[in-house]
Every structure is written in structure tokens, then in C-alpha cells.
């Protein structure tokens, strides 16, 4: 909110328990004061008109407003009445309104616009959830606090209804009213959705989608014309367009609007909505697959040379299923003597298994190391382009041999063609011989004036394309956007088009009353300048002219001076002039003249007008009598202090 101004004559000093210390602003609904209670600061809004029989309904709505979620709204604290006029106390938000901020700094863009859209849609959803329809959502009712946007002035529908009935004015601001508010149809929360869409258009373009000139044309366009969405883009543009549908049934509700802004839930990845899917929980596969080696011969527990058995051997194999025992070399062992079972496979006891366990483990580990070394050699060695000669080994490597001597031969023996293929794949790609086009980034152009932007485009090796204009509060000729956008890489010599600010047109306010004209100027993104009063036959307070004149384009926030009518004709200054000249001037201005004489000692002042009853420059009603005092020469025999009065009727020659 802006800095509080001193209280004016007639402003209350206290409302209920709240002491008022200054004025924060005034609008069509009421005045807002800075109040305090127990050391806390509040915003206190006092409505202009009484609520009549709606006192109880107003208080009920305030109770509902107190339960509105306060993360995107100014919390409603209290309410009451002062001589029949309702007031409502809310949290004080120290920050400018969206209308003022856009007028001073320009439209919102990108993330700032999206954050504004989500925050205000959240506020509307919270207000509707409490059972309240705002009915006057507009840029002036969105305050930009230090912790984010806040929506204010909700919970006043009943009071505004009653005040509108008394004053004959409708509830809402014309440029942001929904069609059903204009036609006096049933108003639901979708009217706030329409106003939200219009407010987002203003935030993006610094102007309302149906204009903000005279009331009648604006209302007509809301009912019949398509909205001007301006610089809104993408998904937000489509969503705002749906919110500005003429038929409320075709608009989304506030909750649906918020969900659309956040994105549909079924478009979110499964890992956000529930348990992570299997592809996230799956373990990473090993870099080297587990080796699968053919059956290897296992040494017999007795350690007899040549005594080996193959695992899985059966009685039907052509190979012997068991070794010859050392106890009787010349004797063929019988099944009972060899300890074999009925299937012809030699069985060993637990002591035999214990004694032969370590050589089996050593063989398995060695085999795994050999396979790992083979894979690493096939990948790494060709990459390093080593052409060392290798000779295949015909004999099996013993388990206890060192790894470096056996890894490379095993790799070449297991896959002799793979290193060549891997080496081919590992070679760096050959650069193409066809020259690629030279690309350059589009320079930063937004914020520059038109001439500097075109110069920057040429210096970057690009070509300046067409230049279009758009309404904007930025300085006239300042670049708003470029296509392609700044930072995008494009081939050298490409064309870059620009969109520059055309400024804002001064609205036509001649013929309006002063307050209405000031509202029109601020609503158009301009400021109110000096106000000069001029005598006129027009009613008091009517605007006679502006400077700059209507239609002239200026930057946002430019002060527009007003000339306002004061009923009556200007009284000319006649003091110091000869009596006849002064009288003629007053008569020509439309006044009647009465003369009085006053003796003077200075002969040079004889016959001259010494004073006039109405101050020069004052606006007086035509036909009013103005008394002039004329200097007279002193006469003998008369009291010099006694003035001689001239006839008050018309003089000869009039």
C-alpha cells in the first residue's frame, strides 16, 4: 500500500476499537484508513453508503471471510458500523497494488506472470471455498506484498449490494465485470473467474482485454466483442481465453482453474504420485556378466596322478567313473572296494570333501579372474592402440599362476575377432568435410530503444526485420520483445523482427467529473497531474481539458494535467484603472456595477478605482453586483472622513 496521507477534515478519528492515523486511499466503494489497536497495524475500510436492512447479512459474510485461508489473501480481522456505515478491518499489506506496479514498471512476463496467476487463482479458490463470491476482483484489489500477491476486499458483497441499491450504482469495476453482472443475471463464483482472466490480461499487457475508456463502450464490448489477449502466450493464453467466455457455463470453476494452472494430475510421473516404478528400484546390473565355464576336472581326494573325475559322470559314460586306487595297482577295483554307489559314480566321505574344497575354490576364482581380464583386455587394449604380439597358450593355466601372464592370451583365445571390432568402434568420428553454417546468438535487445536495437542486430551479423508496435507503459520506441528471442543461436545473416512500445493513449476524459476522470487515467496506467480550475458555464468539477490531450501516446505513469470547471464567470481586475474603463470591463464580463466614492489626498488617485468587492480571478455568477470604490477630490465644508456615495443605478451611456 502507498504511504498513508494525513486525515482530512470530516474523517473519523476512531472506528470502534481502532484508532485511525492516516488515509491509505479512496475509491468508489469507500475510503481506506491506517488503523491500530494494541500496537498492531490494520487496514480499515469505511464504505460510503449504509447497508440498510442488510446489517445481519453483512456480519454473517464477514464471519465467513474470517475463515478464508490467509496465505494469498489479506486476512479479515473485524467489522462494525459507524453511524450506519459499515467498516471492515483486515490485515495491513505493505505493498503497491498490481495496477500501480504495472503502471510504474510495465507488464509482467514469464515466471513473474505465472506466479501471479497461480497465487491469485489460489486466493479465489480459497474465497469460494469459504462460501464467498468476491464480485470486484481487479488489479486494484491485488496487493503485491513482500511475501507475494494478496487479494483484498472480499467479504463485502452484502454491504456493496445494499450500498448499490441506495446509490443506484452497480457492484464491480466496469472493465473487469463479467457479462452476468452487467445484465443483472445470477452471479456465481465464475464471475470472479472472468474478472481473474481480465486481470491477467492487464498484468501481461497493461490494459484490460475489453478496453478501459468510457463505461458504455466497455460494457458493450464485454457483452459482444472478443477479448484482446495481447502478449499472453501458450497455455496461459488459452486458459485466460476460456475464463473470458461470455457464457458462465463455458468457464472453468476456480478449483478447476487452479488445477489447470498446476497441470493435470495424470500427467505427473508415477514416481511422484506413488511408489517408484520397478525401473527405479531395479538394481544396477554388474558390469561384467557372471562367467559360465564348462565342467572342469576335479582332482581326486587321494591326489593320485591321473586320478580325475568329471562332475555329473554316470555309469553309462564311456569314461571311467572313478580312478584306480593306489592300494592295489594291479587289481581292478570293485564297486565295494572303490566306495562307489550303485550309479557308478565314486562317492567320497566328508573328510575327502574337506580336503578337496580349497582346490575347487581356487579353480573357480581363477576362472572368474581370467574371464574378467579377457573382457578388460578386449576393451582397453585396443583403445590404447597397443599392437603387442601375443602368442596363444596351448596348455591350461594352473590355478596358482599370476594373472598378468594369463589374462591377455585367454582374451585372445576366447574372442579373437572382438578386439578388432571394438577398436574400430572406439576410433573417434571423422569430422565431416561439408562446412557447417556459422551461427551467432541473438543479442540482448529488450529494453533498448529502437535505433540502438537495430544497431546491435547489425553488429551481430544479423538483419533487422519488420518492427511492430504494441500498447505498453514502457517508453515509446523501447523494445518489448524480439523474434527469435535474445540468446537463441541462429545462422549468420538471419532476420530478427522487433516489437516496440507504442506507449499508452491518453484517454478522453473531457466532460467527465473530476473523480471519474482521475479513475480513468489511473486505470489506463497514467498518473494524475496538476488540477487547474477555470471559470466556465459548465457544472462544477467537470473536466474541460487535459494536457497532454486525449489520444496522444505517452509512457506509462506520465502525469496528465486536468483543467476543471468552476461554475461562473471570471472577475476581471479593475483596481488602479479609471472608473469608466473598470466599469466597462466588469459589464463586459456579465456583472452589474455599483460605485462608492472615497476622498483621497493624492490628486493622481482621483477618479481611479481604489478597490473592488470581489477579488480578481474569482468565479462569480453572472449578474452579480460588484462594488467598486472610486477616489474623490476633497471638498470644503464637508467631513473628509465621510465618503460620498454615488448613485447605484446604471450610469449614462450603459
From TrEMBL:
Q: Write down the Pfam families for this protein, in alphabetical order.
A: PASTA, Pkinase
Where are the compositionally biased (Polar residues) regions?
Answer: 645-654
Top enzyme class of this protein? transferase
What Gene3D superfamilies does this protein's entry cite?
3.30.10.20, Transferase(Phosphotransferase) domain 1
Domain PASTA: from-to ranges: 436-502, 503-564, 565-632
One MF term in the entry's GO annotations: protein serine/threonine kinase activity
Instruction: Quote the EC number.
Output: 2.7.11.1
UniProt-listed InterPro entries? Kinase-like_dom_sf, PASTA_dom, Prot_kinase_dom, Ser/Thr_kinase_AS
UniProtKB keywords: ATP-binding, Kinase, Nucleotide-binding, Serine/threonine-protein kinase, Transferase
Q: Which reaction does it catalyse?
A: L-threonyl-[protein] + ATP = O-phospho-L-threonyl-[protein] + ADP + H(+); L-seryl-[protein] + ATP = O-phospho-L-seryl-[protein] + ADP + H(+)
- Composition skew (Pro residues), residue ranges: 286-297, 429-439
Q: What is this protein called?
A: non-specific serine/threonine protein kinase
The region called Disordered is annotated at: 269-353, 388-439, 635-654
Renumbered to this chain, the Low complexity biased-composition regions fall at 329-338
**Source domain of life:** Bacteria
Q: Where is the composition biased (Gly residues)?
A: 304-315
The UniProt record lists the Protein kinase domain at: 18-262
Amino acid at each position: 500500500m502507498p504511504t498513508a496521507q494525513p486525515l482530512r477534515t470530516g474523517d473519523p478519528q476512531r472506528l470502534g476499537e481502532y484508532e485511525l492515523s492516516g488515509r491509505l486511499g479512496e475509491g468508489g466503494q469507500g475510503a481506506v484508513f491506517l488503523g491500530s489497536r494494541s500496537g498492531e497495524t490494520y487496514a480499515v475500510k469505511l464504505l460510503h453508503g449504509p447497508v440498510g436492512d442488510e446489517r445481519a447479512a453483512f456480519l454473517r459474510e464477514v464471519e465467513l471471510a474470517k475463515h478464508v485461508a490467509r496465505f494469498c489473501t489479506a486476512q479479515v480481522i473485524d467489522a462494525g458500523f459507524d453511524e450506519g456505515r459499515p467498516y471492515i478491518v483486515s490485515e495491513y499489506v505493505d505493498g503497491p497494488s498490481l495496477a500501480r506496479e504495472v503502471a510504474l514498471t510495465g507488464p509482467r512476463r514469464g515466471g513473474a506472470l505465472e506466479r501471479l496467476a497461480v497465487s491469485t487463482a489460489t486466493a479465489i479458490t480459497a474465497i469460494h471455498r469459504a462460501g464467498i463470491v468476491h464480485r470486484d476482483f481487479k488489479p486494484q484489489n491485488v496487493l503485491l506484498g513482500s511475501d507475494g500477491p494478496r487479494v483484498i476486499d472480499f467479504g463485502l458483497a452484502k454491504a456493496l449490494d445494499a450500498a448499490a441499491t441506495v446509490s443506484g450504482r452497480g457492484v464491480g469495476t466496469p472493465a473487469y465485470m463479467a457479462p452476468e453482472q452487467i445484465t443483472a443475471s445470477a452471479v456465481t463464483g465464475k464471475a470472479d473467474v472472468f474478472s481473474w482472466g481480465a486481470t491477467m490480461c492487464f498484468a501481461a499487457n497493461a490494459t484490460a482485454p475489453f478496453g478501459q475508456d468510457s463505461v458504455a463502450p466497455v460494457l458493450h464490448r464485454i457483452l459482444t466483442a472478443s477479448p484482446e489477449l495481447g502478449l499472453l502466450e501458450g497455455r496461459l493464453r488459452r486458459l485466460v481465453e476460456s475464463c473470458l467466455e461470455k457464457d458462465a457455463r463455458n468457464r472453468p470453476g476456480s478449483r478447476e482453474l487452479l488445477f489447470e494452472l498446476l497441470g493435470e494430475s495424470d500427467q505427473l510421473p508415477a514416481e511422484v504420485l506413488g511408489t517408484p516404478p520397478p525401473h527405479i528400484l531395479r538394481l544396477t546390473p554388474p558390469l561384467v556378466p557372471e562367467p559360465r565355464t564348462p565342467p572342469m576336472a576335479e582332482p581326486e581326494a587321494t591326489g593320485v596322478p591321473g586320478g580325475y573325475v568329471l562332475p555329473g559322470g554316470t555309469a553309462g559314460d564311456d569314461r571311467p567313473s572313478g580312478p584306480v586306487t593306489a592300494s592295489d595297482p594291479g587289481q581292478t577295483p570293485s564297486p565295494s572296494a572303490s566306495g562307489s554307489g550303485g550309479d557308478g559314480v565314486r562317492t567320497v566321505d566328508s573328510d575327502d570333501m574337506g580336503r578337496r574344497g580349497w582346490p575347487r575354490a581356487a579353480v573357480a576364482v581363477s576362472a572368474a579372474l581370467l574371464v574378467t581380464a579377457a573382457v578388460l583386455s578386449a576393451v582397453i587394449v585396443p583403445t590404447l592402440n597397443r599392437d603387442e604380439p601375443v602368442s596363444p597358450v596351448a596348455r591350461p593355466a594352473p590355478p596358482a599362476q599370476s594373472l598378468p601372464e594369463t589374462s591377455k592370451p585367454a582374451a585372445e583365445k576366447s574372442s579373437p575377432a572382438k578386439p578388432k571390432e571394438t577398436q574400430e568402434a572406439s576410433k573417434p568420428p571423422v569430422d565431416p568435410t561439408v562446412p557447417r553454417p556459422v551461427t551467432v546468438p541473438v543479442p540482448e535487445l529488450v529494453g533498448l530503444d529502437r535505433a540502438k536495437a537495430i544497431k546491435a542486430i547489425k553488429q551481430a551479423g544479423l538483419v533487422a526485420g519488420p518492427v511492430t508496435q504494441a500498447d505498453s507503459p514502457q517508453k515509446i520506441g523501447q523494445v518489448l520483445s524480439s523474434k527469435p528471442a535474445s540468446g537463441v543461436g541462429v545462422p549468420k545473416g538471419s532476420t530478427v523482427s522487433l516489437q516496440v512500445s507504442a506507449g499508452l493513449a491518453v484517454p478522453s476524459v473531457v466532460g467527465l467529473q473530476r473523480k471519474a476522470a482521475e479513475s480513468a487515467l489511473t486505470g489506463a496506467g497514467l498518473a494524475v497531474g496538476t488540477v487547474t480550475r477555470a471559470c466556465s458555464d459548465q457544472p462544477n468539477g467537470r473536466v474541460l481539458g487535459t494536457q497532454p490531450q486525449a489520444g496522444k501516446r505517452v509512457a506509462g505513469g506520465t502525469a496528465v494535467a486536468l483543467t476543471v470547471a468552476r461554475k461562473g464567470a471570471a472577475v476581471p481586475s479593475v483596481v488602479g484603472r479609471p472608473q469608466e474603463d473598470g466599469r466597462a470591463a466588469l459589464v463586459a464580463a456579465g456583472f452589474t456595477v455599483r460605485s462608492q466614492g472615497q476622498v483621497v489626498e493624492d490628486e493622481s488617485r482621483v477618479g481611479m478605482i481604489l478597490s473592488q468587492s470581489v477579488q480578481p480571478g474569482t468565479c462569480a455568477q453572472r449578474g452579480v453586483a460588484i462594488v467598486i470604490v472610486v477616489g474623490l477630490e476633497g471638498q470644503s465644508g464637508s467631513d473628509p472622513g465621510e465618503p460620498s456615495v454615488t448613485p447605484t443605478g446604471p450610469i449614462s451611456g450603459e
